[in-house]
Design goal:
Structural class: alpha+beta
Number of domains: 3
Strand order of the largest sheet: 4-5-6-11-8-7
Largest sheet: 6 strands, antiparallel, barrel
Number of helices: 7
Shape: flat
Number of strands: 26
Helix content: 10-25%
C-alpha cells in the first residue's frame, strides 16, 4: 500500500520522481550553511555601446542616460539635438558577491536590456557601478558581452529569434571595490542553519558534533539552527569550521508530501506517503484499496507472541473493462508497470488525488502547483 500513490502517479503523468528510502549520510556543508557566510546581490544601471544597429530607439530615459554619460566626459549636447542611439542600449547589470570577496577580485555579471533594443550581441558594457541593498558601491563592471541568442529580420517583417539575444554575460566582468563585513569571526559561538528545517536533523547534527569532539559544545537551538562554541582566534576558528563542515549526519526522513505540477506533468512523491483504505471512482477509472489483517500465531513452545500482519489488496479498473489486481506484498515496480499500461489523462490523476485528500485517505500533504 505504500506504493499506491506512486503507481497512480505513474499511470497518468509522463514524469514520476520517487525519493529513495535509503538517503544515507550527508556532510554538514551539504545540508546547511554557517550564519554570516552568505552571498550579497548587487545591481547597477548602465549602457551597452557598439551595437550593430540593434540598440535603443529614441525614448526619454535612454536619451537622458546618453546625455549624462557624455556630460561626464565633458561633452554637452544641445537640448534641441536629438541623438540617434541605434548603437546604444540601456541595461540592468546584476551579480552575486560571494562571501569573503576581497578588493581586486573579479566576479561574473549578467547584463539585460530594459528598453527596445533587439540584441546586445557585439556590444560592450561601459563602466557601471554595482550597488548593494545599502546603496553603497561594492563593484565596478565593464567589458565585452557574450550573448548566446541571436535574431534576424527580413524586409517584409518576418523574423526569427533563437534563445534570448537581449541578455548577455561577462565572465569576471566586475572588480570588487569594497568588502562586505561579516559576523563570522565575532562572538564565542557560530550558528549552523539547516537548509531544510527539521527538529530531528538539528538534534542529529548537534549530536554528531559532540560525538566527534568528545565534549558538549553543540546545542540544537530550534528546528533550523544549531549553535556551536568556537574558538575566537581567527585561524583556529577556520580550522574548527573546516572540521565541522565535513562531519557526516543522517538527515531525517522528509515529510510525507506529494507535489504535482499540473503544467509540466511532473509528480514528486516522498517515500513516507501512505494511503488509508479507500475506494475511488472517477469517470471510467475505479481504484479500490482493501485491508484484510491476518493473525500470525507463534509455533508451539516457541515463547513467541501473536502478531497482526497487514494484508493489503489493490485493484484498479477502467471503464473499458481492463482490470488488474495485486496480492499483498506487491512491490512499487509491480504497481508502476501495471498501472502504466492504462495511460490516463493528467487531469484524472489530479482529480483522484484531490478526492483522496478531501476524504482523509492520504497520510501526507498534497501540493498542486
Amino acid at each position: 500500500m505504500k506504493g499506491l500513490m506512486r503507481a497512480l502517479a505513474a499511470a497518468v503523468l509522463p514524469v514520476l520522481i520517487v525519493f529513495s528510502s535509503d538517503a544515507g549520510a550527508a556532510r554538514i556543508k551539504d545540508i546547511s550553511s554557517f550564519q554570516g557566510v552568505r552571498t550579497n546581490q548587487l545591481m547597477g544601471y548602465g549602457l551597452v555601446v557598439g551595437l550593430p544597429g540593434t540598440g535603443e530607439k529614441n525614448n526619454a530615459f535612454s536619451e537622458q542616460t546618453f546625455r549624462t554619460m557624455l556630460n561626464n566626459f565633458g561633452i554637452k549636447i544641445s537640448d534641441n539635438l536629438k541623438p540617434k542611439m541605434k548603437d546604444v542600449a540601456p541595461v540592468v547589470v546584476h551579480a552575486e558577491l560571494p562571501p569573503f570577496a576581497k578588493q581586486g577580485q573579479t566576479i561574473d555579471v549578467t547584463v539585460s536590456a530594459i528598453g527596445e533594443a533587439k540584441s546586445l550581441r557585439g556590444g560592450t558594457l561601459i563602466q557601471t557601478f554595482l550597488r548593494g541593498a545599502d546603496n553603497e558601491v561594492y563593484a565596478v563592471a565593464q567589458g565585452s558581452l557574450v550573448v548566446g541568442g541571436f535574431g534576424a529580420e527580413g524586409a517584409d517583417g518576418s523574423k526569427i529569434v533563437m534563445n534570448t539575444p537581449t541578455v548577455g554575460r561577462i565572465a569576471n566582468g566586475a572588480t570588487v571595490e569594497r568588502e562586505v563585513p561579516t559576523s563570522f569571526g565575532l562572538g564565542d559561538t557560530i550558528t549552523i542553519n539547516l537548509n531544510t528545517p527539521d527538529f530531528t536533523t538539528a538534534m542529529r547534527t548537534a549530536q554528531a558534533i559532540n560525538d566527534e569532539l568528545g565534549i558538549e559544545v553543540a546545542k540544537a537551538k530550534d528546528a533550523s539552527s544549531v549553535t556551536v562554541s568556537a574558538p575566537r582566534d581567527q585561524n583556529e576558528r577556520v580550522q574548527f569550521v573546516a572540521t565541522l563542515e565535513n562531519l557526516e549526519v543522517d538527515p531525517a526522513d522528509a515529510k510525507a508530501k506529494i507535489v504535482v505540477n499540473a503544467r509540466t506533468g511532473t509528480i514528486i512523491i516522498g517515500q513516507n506517503v501512505k494511503l488509508r483504505p479507500a475506494a475511488v471512482t472517477h469517470g471510467g477509472l475505479t481504484v479500490t484499496i482493501r485491508e484484510d489483517p491476518q493473525v500470525s500465531q507463534p509455533a508451539p513452545l516457541s515463547n513467541g507472541t501473536t502478531q497482526v500482519v497487514p494484508n493489503s489488496s489493490i485493484s484498479v479498473q477502467e471503464g473499458s473493462g481492463r482490470m488488474f489486481k495485486f496480492d499483498a506484498g506487491a512491490t512499487l515496480d509491480d504497481l508502476v508497470k501495471a498501472v502504466n499500461d492504462i495511460g490516463l489523462a493528467p487531469g484524472d490523476l489530479i482529480s483522484v488525488l484531490e478526492a483522496l485528500q478531501q476524504a482523509g485517505a492520504i497520510e501526507g500533504d498534497l501540493q498542486i502547483m
